[in-house]
Design goal:
The protein is about 70% helix and about 0% strand. It has about 180 residues and is mainly alpha-helical. α4 packs antiparallel against α5 and α6 packs across α7.
Length: about 180
Amino acid sequence: MSRPSQARPLRADAQRNRVKILAAAERVFAEGGPDASTDEVARRAGVAAGTVFRHFPTKADLLQALMKDLLEQVMADAAELATTGDPATGLFEFVDRLVRRTAANRTVVGLLAVPLSGPITSLAEVVGRLLTRAQEAGAVRSEVRRDEVMALLESTCQGALSGNWTDDLRDRTLAVVFRGLRAE
C-alpha cells in the first residue's frame, strides 16, 4: 500500500528562485497583463524557463500563485485597518489603497480566471468589519450594506484597470464614491 507523499519544504536556493520568479512575474504581468510571456518572467528573474515551469507547471499556476500573493497582501492590509486603523477612515483608506494597487498591477485581471472564491469571501468579511466600524464611528451612512461596498470595490477597480485612469481621475472618482458613502 502506497502512502501519499507529503510536500517537502523547498531547498533554500529553490525558495530564493521562487521568490525571484514571483517578483519578476508581478512586474511582467503588471506591464503586459495575463497574456505576458513566461519566458520574459524567466529572463527578468534570472533563471531558466525550465526553473519557472518546475515551480509553476503552467502559466495559470503562475498567475494563480501571483493572485494568491496579491490577495494575501490585500487581506493583510484590510485586516490591519480593521483592527488598528481609525474606524472613521479605515474603509475609505482601504478602498483607496486597493484601487491604487489595482491600477498599478494589471494582473488583477487574472482574478476573473482564477478560482479564489474562498479568499474573496474572506475579503468580503473583513470589508464588512471595516464598514461596521465606520458606521459605528458615524463616518458611513447606516443603510450602506457590505454587498454594496463590494460592488463599488469591484467596479472602481475594474474601471481603474480597464480605463487606464490617471491619478487625478482616480482621486476624483473616489471622491464621488466616498461622498455617497459618508454619513451626513
